[in-house]
């Protein structure tokens, strides 16, 4: 998918590995003013952040003041203060209670320059990682007591997030405050998406962003690598479609592995049946043409069996390369549907629709059937599938597969339906609201670069379209959100400028996806915290 109009140019737990960070991206000193909720100041929803029990309540000591809530991005959900010296990395070790946590243990040990001791009993000054409790696998409890740190969670993802909190607390010589943090994300899907089809980004830049978002507790990285401009990943089944400047499969495996180590799922997108210009250049016979023989930009002829074959070849080829739980099928902006009378302009599509779905079927039905056929292609790979909201149509003979998750990005497109319509049908949704979460290079088509402040102060996951939230009763159906970089005018910014431009929007977005309710800090305080933590 992409931007309006792209014709201008355009949770599952993953097994982790081990890698050493080459730079500290976020961190935190733990002795600042409270940034999260203490036990007496829980989030407005009244729910505890985690069902994981703390290992022990911290014991008070008259020789220390009561600790304050750690300042982190995103804010921790709950902190029980205590009296004590807190913890700083010195001569302690990182130890684990379960071999499954070796990757998390080695990473935080490397980052804090501590010795990794493996599965041994914790001692004075140590950081102990353990599995335990029940509930949200992304939740964790971190107890700082008696000169030790213990992080425990039901799953390794939660323990990893606990290490991210600790890393921030002690950044720059800070102290992890005495007490107990109980933390968990408000939303299960927290994503950053990058369009490399219109603008190639280096492997190093992509890896830096994965390290950055991992430290911020994002868990999805979307990779839009196929569009009208280019096809950016090596293909063995169709090498003829691949652009000269592309990622090799070995490079993609490096990216996927690094993401997995940070508990981030890489979500690939091969958009179809529109946005296939790079494929069409190598296969012009597949391009959609109207009755006058005029080609339709980026659109394949979905009445031609060859169109489905090449897309399915690619889906099957890349499924093993991207083993994560999610996949994006695209489905937006099929230009055949933008004309006044699709059936008259494209009689071959109208005839195919009636033949396959009956006398009342339309080109919209054929397009929905195309999307459903791609769902069937991906079924053996057991993925949760997404499609853009303007690929779901009102009425019709053919209904979009019920398993498809709506990736809602816009109300600008022809036929775009209000988000409430999808939600009322019981569909799950992720928020890509182009009003707040679209960073479109060159700012074409009335897009403006989003600011962190606007996201921080006025966007929530319920604000799916425009600036008005959907009713709160739909909150559980909105699984999260994604901040997206679209490279429409590719030369408008360098990689470094993009990284700087998205820095605060990324931090504001994760604050709203992790922590429910009003943020504890004002925007100037949040910016000051981000600057102190570094990037």
Automatic annotation (TrEMBL):
<dbReference type="InterPro" id="IPR015882">
    <property type="entry name" value="HEX_bac_N"/>
</dbReference>
<feature type="compositionally biased region" description="Polar residues">
    <location>
        <begin position="64"/>
        <end position="74"/>
    </location>
</feature>
<dbReference type="InterPro" id="IPR025705">
    <property type="entry name" value="Beta_hexosaminidase_sua/sub"/>
</dbReference>
<feature type="region of interest" description="Disordered">
    <location>
        <begin position="32"/>
        <end position="91"/>
    </location>
</feature>
<comment type="similarity">
    <text>Belongs to the glycosyl hydrolase 20 family.</text>
</comment>
<dbReference type="InterPro" id="IPR015883">
    <property type="entry name" value="Glyco_hydro_20_cat"/>
</dbReference>
<feature type="compositionally biased region" description="Low complexity">
    <location>
        <begin position="48"/>
        <end position="63"/>
    </location>
</feature>
<feature type="domain" description="Glycoside hydrolase family 20 catalytic">
    <location>
        <begin position="190"/>
        <end position="497"/>
    </location>
</feature>
<keyword id="KW-0378">Hydrolase</keyword>
<dbReference type="GO" id="GO:0016787">
    <property type="term" value="F:hydrolase activity"/>
</dbReference>
<dbReference type="InterPro" id="IPR017853">
    <property type="entry name" value="GH"/>
</dbReference>
<dbReference type="InterPro" id="IPR029018">
    <property type="entry name" value="Hex-like_dom2"/>
</dbReference>
<feature type="domain" description="Beta-hexosaminidase bacterial type N-terminal">
    <location>
        <begin position="70"/>
        <end position="184"/>
    </location>
</feature>
<keyword id="KW-0326">Glycosidase</keyword>
<dbReference type="InterPro" id="IPR052764">
    <property type="entry name" value="GH20_Enzymes"/>
</dbReference>
<dbReference type="Pfam" id="PF00728">
    <property type="entry name" value="Glyco_hydro_20"/>
</dbReference>
<dbReference type="Pfam" id="PF02838">
    <property type="entry name" value="Glyco_hydro_20b"/>
</dbReference>
<protein>
    <submittedName>
        <fullName>Glycoside hydrolase family 20 protein</fullName>
    </submittedName>
</protein>
């Amino acid at each position: 998918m992409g931007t309006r109009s792209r014709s201008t140019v355009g949770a599952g737990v993953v097994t982790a590995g081990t890698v050493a960070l080459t730079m500290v991206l976020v961190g935190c000193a733990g002795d600042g003013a409270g940034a999260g909720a203490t036990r007496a100041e829980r989030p407005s929803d009244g729910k505890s952040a985690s069902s994981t029990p703390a290992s022990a309540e911290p014991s008070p000591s008259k020789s220390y003041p009561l600790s304050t809530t750690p300042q982190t991005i995103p804010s921790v959900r709950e902190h029980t203060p205590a009296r004590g010296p807190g913890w700083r990395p010195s001569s302690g070790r990182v130890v684990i209670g379960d071999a499954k946590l070796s990757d998390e243990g080695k990473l935080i040990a490397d980052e804090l320059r501590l010795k990794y001791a493996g599965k041994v009993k914790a001692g004075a000054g140590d950081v102990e990682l353990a599995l335990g409790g029940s509930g949200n696998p992304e939740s964790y409890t971190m107890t700082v007591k008696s000169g030790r740190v213990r992080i425990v969670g039901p799953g390794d993802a939660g323990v990893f997030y606990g290490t991210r909190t600790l890393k921030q607390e002690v950044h720059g010589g800070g102290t992890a405050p005495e007490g107990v943090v109980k933390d968990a994300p408000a939303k299960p899907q927290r994503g950053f998406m990058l369009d490399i089809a219109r603008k190639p980004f280096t492997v190093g830049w992509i890896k830096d962003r994965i390290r950055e978002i991992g430290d911020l507790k994002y868990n999805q990285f979307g990779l839009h690598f196929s569009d009208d401009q280019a096809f950016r990943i090596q293909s063995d089944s169709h090498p003829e479609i691949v652009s000269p400047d592309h990622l090799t499969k070995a490079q993609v495996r490096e990216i996927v592995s690094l993401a997995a180590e940070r508990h981030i799922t890489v979500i690939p997108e091969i958009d179809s049946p529109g946005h296939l210009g790079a494929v069409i250049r190598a296969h012009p016979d597949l391009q959609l043409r109207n009755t006058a023989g005029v080609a339709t930009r980026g659109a394949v002829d979905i009445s031609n069996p060859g169109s489905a074959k090449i897309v399915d070849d690619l889906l099957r080829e890349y499924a093993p390369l991207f083993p994560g739980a999610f996949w994006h099928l695209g489905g937006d902006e099929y230009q055949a549907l933008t004309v006044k009378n699709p059936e008259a302009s494209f009689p071959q599509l109208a005839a195919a629709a009636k033949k396959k779905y009956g006398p009342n079927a339309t080109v919209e039905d054929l397009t929905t059937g195309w999307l459903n056929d791609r769902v069937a292609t991906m079924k053996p790979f057991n993925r949760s599938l997404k499609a853009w909201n303007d690929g779901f149509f009102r009425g019709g003979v053919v209904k979009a597969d019920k398993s498809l998750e709506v990736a809602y990005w816009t109300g600008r497109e022809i036929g775009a339906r209000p988000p409430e319509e999808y939600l009322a049908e019981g569909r799950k949704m992720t928020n890509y609201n182009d009003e707040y979460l679209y960073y479109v290079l060159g700012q074409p088509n009335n897009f403006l670069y989003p600011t962190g402040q606007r996201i921080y102060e006025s966007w929530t996951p319920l604000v799916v379209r425009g600036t008005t939230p959907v009713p709160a009763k739909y909150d559980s159906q909105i699984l999260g959100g994604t901040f997206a970089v679209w490279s429409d005018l590719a030369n408008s910014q360098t990689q470094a400028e993009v990284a700087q431009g998205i820095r605060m929007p990324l931090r504001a977005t994760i604050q709203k996806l992790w922590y429910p309710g009003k943020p504890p800090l004002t925007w100037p305080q949040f910016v000051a915290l981000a600057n102190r933590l570094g990037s």
